[in-house]
Design goal:
Elements lengths: L12 H14 L4 E12 L2 E12 L4 E6 L4 E2 L7 E2 H9 L8 E2 L7 H15 L9 E2 L5 H5 L3 H15 L5 H10 L1 H4 L1 E2 L5 H6 L1
Parallel strand pairs: 2-6
Antiparallel strand pairs: 1-2, 1-5, 2-3, 3-4, 7-8
Helix pairs in contact: 2-3, 2-5, 3-5
Length: 196
Amino acid sequence: MGLKIEDKIVVTCRYVSVLTASILKAKGYAVRIRSGFAPWIRKNEACDHWICEYYNMEEKRWISYDVDEQLHDHKSKKLIFAAQAWLDVRAGKRDLNYFVHGSNIRGVAMLARSVFYDFHALMNDEISYLFFPVYIDKDKEFFDLSPDQLKEIDDLATLCLEPDKNFDEIRYLFKNDKRLRVINTPLINDKEHLEI
């Protein structure tokens, strides 16, 4: 027998992952959420997607679990983590238009924001789609970034490729670099951050 309509919720993969991870963490499991792009959802594109990873103590590794797709440690359907997508596009290894967020948001600014989604998720700070670092809140701001600022995103992405190996450095950046941690939201923007 199915649920009544008032007992159902409609959510995206991000919220399903957050809910699942919250339940598992409350039960004492080591779980984290990852943000990236799924090449299996649409033909010839990799769509933004969020999954859970849980730590298997016996195998001493993180195992992916895609709650939306009911994929567990699936070898042929692997998420392209946001950091990998960003670095591949920056290096000319993948076409920028291969990656899409939502119905049709594309471009390097979207990829950069995705790196920050995954970075924050690794720090148990799963930010929403409308939350961006202050200095890339708007596309215009992103396209005004200097080569050194773009390299900072490259460096962050490189760390996020191997989060276990680089965990202390990632955590240090999260705690100490306000430009990476302070987020604009639909309710709090540059002006409010300055006042705070």
